[in-house]
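Narrative progress, year one. The postdoctoral researcher (J.K.) led the effort to move from monomer predictions toward full complexes, under supervision of the PI. The following entry was the first complex the group processed end to end, covering 736 residues in total.
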Amino acid sequence: MANPSILILPGDGIGPEVMAEVRKIIDWFGAKRGLTFDVSEDLVGGAAYDKHGTPLTDETMERAQEADAVLLGAVGGPKYDKLDFAVKPERGLLRLRKEMDLYANLRPAQCFDALADFSSLKKEVVAGLDIMIVRELTSGVYFGEPRGIFTEGNERVGINTQRYTESEIARVARSAFELAKRRSNKVCSMEKANVMESGILWREVVQKVRDEEYPDVELSHMYADAGAMQLTRWPKQFDVIVTDNLFGDLLSDLAAMLTGSLGMLPSASLGAPMKNGRPKALYEPVHGSAPDIAGQGKANPIACILSFAMALRYSFDQGDEADRLEAAVETVLADGLRTADLMGPEGGKPVSTSEMGDAIVKALDASV
Amino acid sequence: MANPSILILPGDGIGPEVMAEVRKIIDWFGAKRGLTFDVSEDLVGGAAYDKHGTPLTDETMERAQEADAVLLGAVGGPKYDKLDFAVKPERGLLRLRKEMDLYANLRPAQCFDALADFSSLKKEVVAGLDIMIVRELTSGVYFGEPRGIFTEGNERVGINTQRYTESEIARVARSAFELAKRRSNKVCSMEKANVMESGILWREVVQKVRDEEYPDVELSHMYADAGAMQLTRWPKQFDVIVTDNLFGDLLSDLAAMLTGSLGMLPSASLGAPMKNGRPKALYEPVHGSAPDIAGQGKANPIACILSFAMALRYSFDQGDEADRLEAAVETVLADGLRTADLMGPEGGKPVSTSEMGDAIVKALDASV
Ligand SMILES: [Mg+2]
Ligand SMILES: [Mg+2]
């Protein structure tokens, strides 16, 4: 059997330098755990525009469709701000998400004990936090038609359409229930069924999928505004949260900020299973391309490394090895290693991007 | 000139008992500050249904339209859960908002120093917090047409329509800028202009109103998901936030939860100016009718009392007297008085609803 394949798209800004650390990790798993991947690399975003005049070529798109997993760094930078909308770096990422039909966006909000002080929330509220928000990513009010700015009488009106079909709701609900089975078997679905018909259908379909296909998973429903409150009050009450594109946009960012360290957070965007049973999958850090610190060895590679841990877990069914990698990250943090973004008011000397990567490799070595 | 009029609608559950304390405060301002109001009282919600078979009679609706300010307690309770949708207690409140066309919902998030420990956020993040969210309340995706659950091919689709006209945006923007002039002259407008055309129009119109009518007010724009993050990270960066119905629904509840004490929070819903220059206005606490503790003297009357302070400020142009009332509340809290909902883990003996009201009257006495 051929090795599973990973397409790496480092992108712009700090993308290449954090991805270089991920390469070290991938190599480690090949050398020490017999997990060998066919790794190839290509361009996306401004880097692709600079070479090809487009943020994503058809050839790269095709390679992404064929890869078992795509690992992306970050895209964008001030150099590209004035470009036409159609060739902006972000369009490369959006094309990937759209053509791969990545409908389930997995946004973990995890708070490492060693970093709990970075949160604006009290330590006991966030220490050990480990929740997962599943956001529907390909439909809803950001995509529905009709949309636009129209003239009515003597004024203009801005219109967008929230729109969900039963099958769109059912497939992302299944993603959430599958995740729950690997975690605490508990899902909370959020919408505004009290004032939106799309929310009524959402609630009904999620409940039906649970009753017919996942009777062992505990399902609750919450209005999205109450969800925002409860995430703020006591986030540990949740495990998996499933919600639509718009509510997920706000709630996943809110949950990320609870942890206090955005530079630490990975994400996965998953689509339908391919022929080999693996889901279409794109993994990327939540943080951006940080052009202000690019090329200086200051970037924190952990979010990108944890994105690879998610790939191990969700694309390659290597949950134990994902645990190992996450534990290695936890170890170096507990040892006090900090990149510049993690320096607290107490000061100290930050480590460089590659020193952080090397330390994680060393912790992996110690784990076997 | 006739005295300004206030229509009191105590409603259900704890509504009547918290409103009884507000009556003491209103009486105090008449006796001690020469601010005499024509106060009348009527039924709304379940209480109206019990007597008239409807949660709001046409006569009460008419009186509300004519009042200079409406003060509402709370509506609803388990006794009415099985009623037809059209006569549920909440319909009375919705009818008031709709027929009075109360398009600007003012939701202050204030954190009294004495209660900062109740927040899930660190004390330094929330102590002294004083922000105001202005939520558009009569349009947007909760009201737009088409809406419903339809059949397409062999499945159903849930549809709602986000819809804002220029004039709807402009009028609520004006409410926010007017408020800013009484506060720190600073407004942040939130939408999702990056992915929604209704957000693009929102941003453009808010900016235009500011440039043409309020050039001295500092205006910034933020995407609503970033807004959720920033509210969580460092809420004191904001003063007045203006946003649409849906984003305001989530963000105002999030901001309320930052303070940690929902039982303390008032609200105002304002419409267009009446002939006398006063806006149509409904004031009510954010909390609900709390049927589980109704009639036991356990309810916290402060949110309802602070709603009257908002009436003093926004309907009767008595900002100094509103300050006086808010300071009196702060005094009793600093003195350690706590109703049952404000008892911390350290325990102590809670005061009753009327003891809290009496203490605030006493603090008012001491202020003159
Ligand atoms: Mg977002
Ligand atoms: Mg709400």
